[in-house]
Amino acid sequence: MKVVTGIRKDLFLYALILPGFLYFLLFKYVPMWGIVISFQEYSPYLGFWQSPWVGFEHFATLFNNPDFLIIFRNTMVISMMNIVFYFPMPILVALMLNELRLKRFQRVIQSVIYLPHFLSWVIISGITFLLLSQSGGIVNKLLVEFGREPYNFLTNPGIFWQLLTAQSIWKETGWGTIIFLAAMAGIDPQLHEAARIDGAGRLRQIWHVTLPGIRNVIVTLLILRLGSIMDVGFEQVFLMMNSAVTDVADVFETYVYRNGIQQGQFSYSTAVGLFKSVIGLLMVIGANKLAKRYGEEGLY
């Protein structure tokens, strides 16, 4: 009776959350039933119930595949480079924007650095080709003008990972500052005033006031980022991939695309996706426990 009374009392609030609840139920939880086909030899003609069960056969095939270690290495290296080099960039830019005293100038800068986020990876890749193409790229034309030989930026396996990281930094850094700027806005101004009275300069205020004030946000976003460590972005890698860099560009997303979409191996590609999800779940659980051990709130 108390539950019914509570629902009636807050009926409009429950009605407000109903669309979101239905969205997650229909598009996030119900499709999870599809992971069952990773343990089957799924056939669209036979369906879920009639397709034969094969147990962990597809997982064994994945782990015994000679390409598995290469794909796993590429995925992990690209993800770790994004964590090491891209993840801190929105924090640094947000700190610099927060220190600007001219608010109109701050808003202009924010608007400018937000813009790349709204460009598709197709456009980003096109800009990259225009800049770095060996035959007609602007950068190589400048190198020739200064008497240097053209450089093969796009077909050099040695810089492919760095190129992807640079694209991610340019495209998403501005958008990533939104959350950190919002967190900085919630810091009590009296803390900065007290620090100034104690003789702290701007750098000291940032180190002892601003960063501790947004530490929980940084830890939470880092944990979430580790949860998607096996996802490096299909569109970006697929558009930048070519035959010269395949050995360093092939990741789980492109591997699933070839096997699942082009070759119709639905069960096998689902097994690959489930493997990625399990790794992401373990990373979230481990990172959350580590954060709590060091006194942070974590996700749960």
From TrEMBL:
Chief localization? membrane
- Residue ranges annotated for the ABC transmembrane type-1 domain, each copy included: 72-287
Subcellular location(s): the record lists: Cell membrane; Membrane
Membrane-topology descriptor: Multi-pass membrane protein
The name of this protein is: ABC transporter permease
Residue stretches in coiled coil: none
Can you tell me where the transmembrane regions are? Answer: 12-39, 76-97, 118-139
Q: Which UniProt keywords apply?
A: Membrane, Transmembrane, Transmembrane helix, Transport
Asked if the Swiss-Prot or TrEMBL record annotates the protein with the keyword Signal, the reply is no
Q: Record's family?
A: Belongs to the binding-protein-dependent transport system permease family.
The protein's matches in Gene3D superfamilies, at most eight in alphabetical order, are given as: MetI-like
- Its domain of life reads Bacteria
